[in-house]
Amino acid sequence: MVKYYRQGFILLLFLLWLLCAYYLFSTIWESQEIPLKFQPEFSTSEKYLTYLPHSGFHNQRIELENALFLAKLLNRTVLLPPALLGPPIPWRTFNSLHNWLSGKSKRSLGHCKNYKLKELPLECAGYETWTKLPWRYFFDMDAFRGKIKFQQQTEFASNELANYGIDAEDIHYVKDTTLYNYTIVDRFNSTFALNQFSRAILVSELADIPQKLIFFGSLFSSWRIQTDIPENTAYFQQLRRKLVYDSPVVHTISKRISAKLGGSENYYGIHLRASDFYFAEDLGKNLMIILDEIKQMLRTREDQQAMGVSGSRFEMGQSHSLESCLTRSRLRSPVIYLATDLKNPREEDALSPLFKEFPCTFVYSDFKSETASLYDERNPEDSISLTPHLIPMVDSVVASRGYFFVGTPRSTFSKYALRLHEVYFGRKDPIDIIL
């Protein structure tokens, strides 16, 4: 009898261990610890660079890429401003943007998170409209350790520079008076052109600057740094490919949706930016380009697998459940995942050609159970919901995990999703789309 009690007790302990392991595992993947405070590290001999972030998330990401690459080229430590989430920050001239960012702080507003929106005191006006996070929340910044020197800042204010032993006379400013005021070049060649930029600065000129800190204005633009030296070009491409989303919550939820769609081999991804700027004006034209490109890609797959294609296609113009779509041939009735900034894409008349041509098209809002945990994500520093900022990231990852991907011309979001797509699959698609 004692033997059976002992076996039962051991079994109970084992079950408890399994429950604890499951809890720990699910916690790791369902939530994400956000490092908010950083201890400045500096030496008297170290040299630094920094810049002024602006615009939306992906434009800030491009600035991050350029800053990391410059730090490598100049052998300086880049002081990384946090990612600012909220309404896009319009570009301003250096002094104006510098002053605006210096005042962008919640350091003395900790009490604001204790109020409901309707009860906010005057000093808390606008508190809920923005938040900031370190870049390591989104990307695996440790991938650059030992190769590129960087330190994450927690604030935008210039008085933070004193933490690195930097005084006013230690700063060399590279100020911009227009958005595309300067481009940075590793060397000139016979084909070099300024294009939209007003002037060019050689890397060697920057390397000769003696001041402890080089303070740039905007570093936005995929053409901000132009490389002619082959090893520089190769390293820059490698750096960009390493900056892929590394957020556990984004990965977990996007994988759930991708699996529900039948897995990466069984659906195709589209990104359509449509709700702002010239994208709204060009919605119809861009949709026709996307439809043409996705049909071209589907034809290449049909040619490769024609012998295995069977069954009839769904009637055009009729919507169908995901379950019924997955029972059909992926070539006859292809499953499409549409990532878009439109709030109600099915109700948009301009998108009717897409849903008519491809009735097995699905969007983020079709996956409520898979995305439920995303709505729990908050920044512990100010209690601001991160959900509105994480949804586009999930959208882009799901679309980029599709077997083929097509995006919107001139969209930085689409360009990044295409990069993710090529990293995930280790190949380019058969049609070379121009974004």
From TrEMBL:
Keyword list, A-Z: Carbohydrate metabolism, Fucose metabolism, Transferase
Entry annotated with the keyword NAD: no
Source organism of this protein record: Basidiobolus meristosporus CBS 931.73
GO terms for MF: transferase activity
Biological process, per Gene Ontology: fucose metabolic process
Protein name in UniProt: O-fucosyltransferase family protein
Pfam families referenced in this protein's UniProt entry, alphabetically: O-FucT
CDD domains to which the protein is assigned, alphabetical: O-FucT_like
Alphabetized Gene3D superfamilies for the sequence: 3.40.50.11350
